[in-house]
Amino acid sequence: MIVEFGHFALILALLVAVAQVVVPAIGAHLKDERMMRVADPAAVSQLFLIAIAFCALTHAYVTSDFSVLNVAENSHSTKPLIYKLAGVWGNHEGSMLLWVLILALFGAAVALFGNNLPLTLKARVLSVQASIAVAFLLFSLLTSNPFTRLDPAPPDGRGLNPILQDPALAFHPPFLYMGYVGFSIAFSFAIAALIEGRIDAAWARWVRPWTLAAWMFLTIGIAMGSWWAYYELGWGGWWFWDPVENASFMPWLAGTALLHSALVMEKREALKIWTVLLAILTFSLSLMGTFIVRSGVLTSVHSFAVDPARGVFILAILILFTGGGLALFALRSKDMQAGGLFQPISREGSLVLNNLLLVTGAATVLVGTLYPMALEGLTGEKISVGPPFFNMTFGPLMIPLLVALPIGPMLAWKRGDFAGAMQRLAFAFGAALVALVAVFAAEYRGPWLAPFGVALGVYVMAGAVVEWANRVKFGSAKSDEIIRRARNLPRSAYGTFFAHFGIGMLVVGIVATSAYREEHIQAMKPGDQITVNGYNVTFVGLEQARGPNYVEDIADFNVKRGGETVARLTPSKRLYDAPPQTTTESGILAAWRGDLYLVIGDAQPNGGYAVRAYFNPLVRFIWLGALIMFIGGGISLSDRRLRVGAPSRSRQPVAVPAE
Amino acid sequence: MVFWILVAGLVAAVTLAITRPLMRPSSRATDSAGPDIAVYKDQLKEIDSDEARGTLGAAEAESARAEIARRILRVSQDHPKAGSHARDPERNRFVVPVSIATAIALPIASLGLYLTYGAPGMPAQPLSERLAEASNANKPNDLVAKVEERLRDHPEDGTGWDVIAPVYYAMGRYADAATAYQNAIRLIGESPKRLQGFANARIHIENGVVPEDARKALERIIVLAPDSSIEPRIWLALAKEQDGRVSDAAADYRKLIAEAPADAPWRKVIEERLANIGKGIGSPPAGDGNQGAGSNAGTAPSSATPAANPEAAAIMAMNPEERQAFIARMVDSLAARLKSDGNDAAGWVKLIRAYEILGRRDDAIKALTDARANLKGNQDGLAEVEHLARQLGLGS
């Protein structure tokens, strides 16, 4: 019964979404408050109904109800509970349900917390948001219904792909989707503004928290995915430039650009048209990511033909929203007035540069992702573009971006003082120089460009510190004055500090681990030793063990450093019961200076095992940097100013947040 | 019944929630400049604090203030009088029809769609309930759990392993079954049944390919019980065929058929296999025997020279179509194996080379792409494949 109730709730949610598209839109057109206010309860009801559906499907997974086709195809009775839960979105139908759930979550959040918005704008935003929901609910119900039943139920399910049975992978889709789908709000705001024909500095401020939230979740979602790839795929890499990763990276680049251009718009009312266009493009890239991952184009062009309904449906959604958005943009953007003027050397100018580079970067990734697919679709020829392409195109684009990154915040609005900014950045240049010399001294044999990369990262980190120090007058004011200033600094300034600092760390981590990685592949018998970057690793032996739904060969390694045992690592190879597939579990010894990373391979004919040992210097900086960026986003989001503008008709302020 | 009550409740609650704003008498201002002005006033305050903090010069602050003041002015002009845009709500003809339409359409359309796509009345069938129903006979899962529990405490209990092994096998847990049989054999000795069970489980894991350890077990059965060893002999013959020792396999098949009683159920299967592979053996080599593999021998130095071993001789002995079909079959089975286990550089090299020899260049390129994807982490293997790709000129 619960399953059927969930199915019914999903259908009702579709109809509520239809009402949410139509009624507030008419209301906004006629300036009728009653009709506009329908949007709020509709958005909340929609969330409530989709949540019921989602809980019903989860219940079916937890109780292993194999009379639900989706459960039978993707779950198994012996699977541990957390993977039964994660299994809900570990498949196509369930993940689409999660997609619409998060879409509804954002819609309801606007309905509940958007009291600071003008009524017509809010009604239009929610109406556009609901139109996206209608499209995806229809897609879900018509082509990939998670509640399709099976009678009689099979004795057991087919199981979740073992490679997905891992905590980081299990829980990164919700974050990733929060990011993807969060940009739908920016899109809805853009479309609403175009319909309304009015767009100004206040609009930029209203959009900012939503963009920021989406950006935060996308950042952490991508980082979790990369972390998972690092320790689960078993070769020590952390980014593969494969289309699934690119699908999430493109909206991230465009979203980062959007965050920055919205800043210019909010302060100076400049870049209005560009910002609106970016908002449309960012969400279009999210949709395209969904299309690439979900339609089956990715695994092969041929599977696209196996189930054309799905692929064509998502393609239609993509065309409708991207095309519709851009058409509306073309129609209305010329009515918009240009905003404030500025000199090339100014805060605005630096942000324009940032936008140009980020968008070009996104375009590069887009070409690298789509070209091989298009080629295969047209000619059947398979090519792999791979990391060399991206390293040669995307990498160089990011260098000027990083060089300019600390300079931008040093420049004043309208007209900046470049020489002054350089002077104030002297400390950052000094820090970079020290890093450069230190890295050259330590790794004189390495690739000669790498020390410059590390120095660039250090420069970005130091630049973030300098900016903060500058704002609190560190060095020129007295200590109590500094503390007072540090306290009074708006939270968004701290957000900027953390986000930029995190980027610097990320760069240091990427360069160090790419350039100075140590790699050994060796057949080892019990008792054999190998030395990896100062670690003395002894292969003790191998034994079999049984997990909840797999058998594994666990290798035992004794790791010594300076004669003392520092760790015992146990990389293993698992063979899952259902479906019978093998996965590798790496053994990792994490430390600040880098990770020791061991993988056990196949048995060799002579009784030994193929062992791969890596040392990945500073690799933790990559995810730590992303985490710091996420935290920076959170701090910025908590800034009081993002909530300004609540109309006076709201009730008594409940609690004033601590400033 | 409960279901329909819940559905009715849900529809009623949602419909009410959505139409409620429409029911309210309302004539308040719909669109005021309030929210905009609140933002701009806050921006003014920010400028004050920036100026106080010294991050903004007096002149810049002044021009920024003027800019914001212009924005406030413009917004106020857009909304000269709060509420003047709003129509008289009583005159809005749409509100009543929209309310009614919503209140009617939501229940009817949702029920209609549900009755079309849903399965009303179909009960949930959670595993626990279904197991409880099936428990009148016995509960295999409980039984398994009990034996597993015991084996955890007494892993040296060979009889326990012997009992649970066929159960695992029946449950489809082949890896466990293989381990259990192995333990039972180690602890309480070999028996044809255990050896056969072990071999079956291993063959299942390998998707029908007879692996080395299974082959050894099957050979042991023939030693232990030479009289009742039809099944192991069939598997061993199959293993030979899989190894490419076609003529040996064919001889074994013939022998099996000769000894088989006329009504043996497996007889037909063996005959078919034999028909597939054995037809051409014994016929003289065709004149163009060197055309296929031979002309490419230069690029395939590792493949043994034809006729140096019996299976190659057997292949050479076939007529061209048969040989093509035979090779294609071998290649397909290799491709299938690599699909399930891609981390085998030697296998990929073999496959790519085979496609090239067969003139299936598109497939060779595709296999090369697959190999690259599958060998991502395997540097040596990747190098080997890339070397071959250069050799064969298969693009990058």
Annotation keywords:
heterodimer; A: 659 residues; alpha+beta; 4 domains; six-stranded antiparallel beta sheet; 62% helix; globular; disordered C terminus; B: 396 residues; mainly alpha; Serine Threonine Protein Phosphatase 5, Tetratricopeptide repeat
Task: Please give the structural blueprint.
The complex is a heterodimer of chains A (659) and B (396).
Chain A: H1 2-30, H2 33-36, H3 39-62, H4 69-74, H5 81-87, H6 92-113, H7 119-143, H8 167-196, H9 201-232, H10 243-268, H11 272-294, H12 301-306, H13 308-332, H14 347-379, H15 386-404, H16 418-424, H17 426-442, H18 450-471, H19 479-488, H20 491-515, E1 518-524, E2 529-532, E3 535-546, E4 550-561, E5 564-569, E6 572-576, E7 582-585, E8 587-589, E9 594-603, E10 609-617, H21 620-637
Chain B: H1 2-23, H2 34-53, H3 58-78, H4 95-117, H5 127-134, H6 140-153, H7 158-171, H8 174-188, H9 192-205, H10 212-224, H11 230-243, H12 246-259, H13 267-278, H14 310-317, H15 320-340, H16 345-358, H17 361-374, H18 379-392
Helix pairs in contact in B: 1-4, 2-3, 6-7, 7-8, 8-9, 9-10, 10-11, 11-12, 12-13, 15-16, 16-17, 16-18
Subcellular location (chain B): Cell envelope
Organism (chain B): Hyphomicrobium facile
GO biological process, one term (chain B): cytochrome complex assembly
